[in-house]
Amino acid sequence: MNHLMRITKSDGSTQLFEEEKLVSSLKKVGASPDVIDDIVDEVEKEMWEGIPTLDIYRRAFELLKKHSAPIAAKYSIRRAMFELGPDGFPFEKFVARVFKLWGYESITDQTLLGTCVEHEMDVVAWKDHDLAMAEVKFHNEFGLKSDLKVSLYVKARFDDLADTEFAYGGLKRKLTDRFLFTNTKFTEAAIQYGTCKGINMISWNYPADKSLHKIIDHNALYPITCLVSLSHQQKRDLINIGIIICSDLSANPDSLKVVGIHPEAIKVVLAEVAVIEKLKVNS
Predict the structure, then answer these.
(1) Cβ atoms within 10 A of the Cβ of 264, count?
(2) What predicted TM-score, i.e. pTM, was given to this entire model?
């Protein structure tokens, strides 16, 4: 219906609307064919020339929420990552959980002395004889990317830390693995330089087999900010007491009581969490 209509992307550029992209995004989160057809029809009826992609997402999300809150929550994961802000500290905690998933012990917000100067490192993680360090770049908008300058200065910081031994996990360790995470995307130049210099670059869509999106979906590592049964303030209150991902709530349901959520509302939240955790994508 609207295949010749142009839409406006988050970076301000425009392109022709592609219905199959909307259909694919709804399929990925488990929406049924009938629900997908209804949502696509409704979204296309309400579109206008130059409509922002964010408006398309918001309308699809609202329609999906009427059919299934858990599936709507999963559809909102990319936007939920932006709620791990505004300062990015919760996103650092989220990245620390990724390292835990990979078998590391990890800690955030470390001040480390390199050969020349001190450096604030967002995440330090260790296992066996390995020591990994991660710089975490958080952005509040879809269109913002981590560019070449970020890769350049992160590489310089890692170089200054490379020859120093650090005491973690009861051992003296030297840096073995370097990571740069962002919740949005990297520019091509940032990826080219970072990978050339031995930095593991992880963004929302890169690398294809271990992107942030894939890590989240394949391991049910869903942030609590995707839950539609919690208000924005309730999410902030939970994050402030260390509850970052949905499985934290199923493991510690009393945390909902701690932040003042009513017992009946707690049942609704935990029911949503239970369904979301079953939506794990098979690798």
Answers:
(1) 7
(2) 0.79
